[in-house]
Amino acid sequence: MNEEPTKNLSRSFEERVFARFDAFDARFDTVDARLGKLEARSYDTKPIWERALAQIMETGLEVGEIKKTVGVIGSKVAVIETEVTGVKTEVAGLKTEVVEVKTEVEGMKTGYAGIRNELTDVRRELRHDIKPKLDLILKFLLEDREDIRDAEDKIRQLETKLA
Fold first, then answer.
1. Phi/psi of residue 104, each to 5°?
2. Which H, E and C letters describe 67-88, residue by residue?
3. In the chain, count of helices (H) and strands (E)?
4. pTM, rounded to two decimals
5. CA-CA distance, 75 to 80, in Å (whole number)?
6. d(C-alpha 100, C-alpha 108), whole Å
7. Sign of the C-alpha dihedral, residues 96, 98, 102, 105?
8. Who's near 19: CB < 8 A, 6+ residues apart?
9. C-alpha 28: how far from its chain's center?
10. Is 8 in contact with 16 (CB distance < 8 Å)?
11. At a CB cut-off of 8 Å and minimum separation 6, what does 8 contact?
12. What is the pLDDT of residues 62-121, one digit of tens each?
């Protein structure tokens, strides 16, 4: 068996309590030393933290400015979107007008073709109807020409008789 537990019992109660206090003090001194080191480090890192905090603040200000700029850009984009929508509406209106003009042009072409066909038909009818009449007029002119010549001959004969 181990004689150590009994060895501790041979010491007095007071000695054992004081021994524990001494051990506790030793531990406290160790913790205190470690805490001192940590505090020393915190003092060493204080300037680093101050610089980091300053940079964080500066970054926050820059982010604020960027937000303002993005807001302005957003407003401009909204205006441009509105203008684009207006232009799209105008283009749609123009497309509708172009379709209407094309329809009118097609109607005009159809109307022109119809009129042209009608004029061709009228021309044919006139040629058909007028040709015999022109032939008659030509016949009468030729006959009248002979009559006029005969009349001129008679006038000359009368003038020679009178003279």
1. -65, -40
2. HHHHHHHHHHHHHHHHHHHHHH
3. 2, 0
4. 0.39
5. 9
6. 12
7. positive
8. 11
9. 74
10. yes
11. 16
12. 999 999 999 999 999 999 999 999 999 999 999 999 999 999 999 888 888 888 888 898
- For 89, other C-beta atoms within 10 Å of its C-beta total 10
Q: Tell me: the pLDDT tens digits for 106-150?
A: 988 888 888 888 889 888 888 888 888 888 888 888 887 888 888
Select from 135, 112, 131 the least CA-distant residue to 123. 131
Could you tell me the two tokens for 53?
A: 């905090």
DSSP 133-150: HHHHHHHHHHHHHHHHHH
DSSP 2: -
Sole residue written with tokens 């007029």: 137
Token output for 59: 């970054």
DSSP string, 46-65: HHHHHHHHHHHHHHHHHHHH
What is the length of the chain? Answer: 163
